Amino acid sequence: MQKAILLIATALLIASCGTSKKKVETRPVAETPDDGITNVIPMEVTIDIPEVEEENTVEMETEVDDEMESETEEMETSTEASKSVDHTPWNSLLKQNVTAVGNVNYEGFRKNRSLLLAYIDMLGKNLPSDSWTKEEKLAYWMNAYNAMTVDLILRNQPLKSIKDIKDPWEQRYWKLGAKYYNLDEIEHQILRKMEDPRIHFGINCASFSCPPLLNIAFTSEKVNDQLDFLARRFINDPTRNTITADSVEISKIFDWFSKDFKQNGSVIDYLNTYSETKINNNTRIRYKDYDWILNK
Fold first, then answer.
1. Is the peptide bond before 50 cis (omega within 30 degrees of 0)?
2. pLDDT digits (tens, 9 = 90+) for 225-279
3. Could you give the CA distance from residue 172 to residue 152 in angstroms, rounded to a whole number?
4. Is the predicted pLDDT of residue 37 greater than 70, yes or no?
5. If you ran DSSP here, which 8-state letter would residue 293 be given?
6. Of all helices (H) and strands (E), which one includes residue 233?
7. What digits encode the pLDDT tens for the residues 163-218?
8. CB–CB of 10/27 below 8 Å?
9. Taking CA atoms, which of 40, 165, 246, 280 is between 20 and 30 Å from 97?
10. What element of type H or E holds 6?
């Protein structure tokens, strides 16, 4: 009877242990005779089973979190490095108010001046950082310069020439970031220091003798092609430059900024980069009078 009770108790113990988180094994110890009855004393041996699945899950979740965080940081870095301003509003204004040859409808700009000012304000809130590419900075600052020049003319209408404005390139009407800029600062302290003489064909002084205003906005993706187009168009424009193999009469821009154009040779070397007529190296250079009449 006692043996039966012991066997039942052992079975119940095993059954109850099977429902716990710990695996319990029962094995018999040495049999000890007691009044002719062999007693089997159960010994509970508790073996801890590592919660492998839970630990692996934690490790996997940690690895996934780390990977996602790393990817997020890379995306943020990539976004910052390629950060650029949307110049679509300026592009729309240019297409509506500037002809293919660069004649400007200032009355059209005046009617949409709120859009022009909103674009300049947007530029002010998105000042270039060191992580921007050269192309992004070129597009930003040349668009800013041209938009501000148009606004300068609108602020001083009616007028026949930008030179009718007192110190036109020193006026500080436009706040970009934490400070107010003028056109001189953008041209001489920012754009010229980027050491690309093509910027002189990209920025516009609202005058007939100035390289015509491009009727689309500069973008970082296209700025190099756009500047090459403008350089070629301006240098081969007979109304602004007269070029033959043995005689050249060119814009004073090449005189005022001769240092920029002589970075890799002479002014003639630079002209020959884009000129459809090959100029002899010993050709004498003369400069045309500059026409400051408004480019409308």
1. no
2. 999 999 999 999 999 999 999 999 999 999 999 999 999 999 999 999 999 999 9
3. 10
4. no
5. B
6. helix 223-235
7. 999 999 999 999 999 999 999 999 999 999 999 999 999 999 999 999 999 999 99
8. no
9. 165
10. helix 2-17
Q: Which amino acid is at 24?
A: V
Which of 246, 216, 240 is CA-nearest to residue 290?
A: 240
For residue 238, the Cα-to-chain-centroid distance in whole angstroms is: 37
Q: Which residue has the tokens 């040779």?
A: 265
- List alpha helices for 236-266, DSSP H: 253-256, 258-261
Identify the three-state secondary structure at position 143. helix
Q: Which helix (H) or strand (E) holds 17?
A: helix 2-17
Q: Cα–Cα distance between 233 and 102 in angstroms, integer?
A: 11
> Which residue in this structure is represented by tokens 């108010």?
97
Total residue count of the chain as it appears in this document? 296
Vertex 258, ends 232 and 272: CA angle to 5°? Answer: 35
C-alpha 284/C-alpha 295 separation (Å) is 29
195's tokens: 């050491």
Coil, helix or strand at residue 200: helix
Geometric angle at alpha carbon 82, from 77 and 84, rounded to 5°: 130
The residues that bridge with 173 in the sheet, in sequence order, are: none
Helix residue spans in 18-169 (DSSP H): 52-81, 88-97, 106-111, 113-124, 134-155
Choose among 243, 169, 229: nearest CA to 198.
229
Place of tokens 């920012």: 190
Helix or strand or coil: residue 120? helix
Phi, psi (deg, nearest 5) at residue 83: -60, 135
CA separation for the pair 188, 87 (Å, rounded) = 23
Amino acid at 177: G
pTM: 0.73
User: Tokens 């480019």 appear where?
Assistant: 295
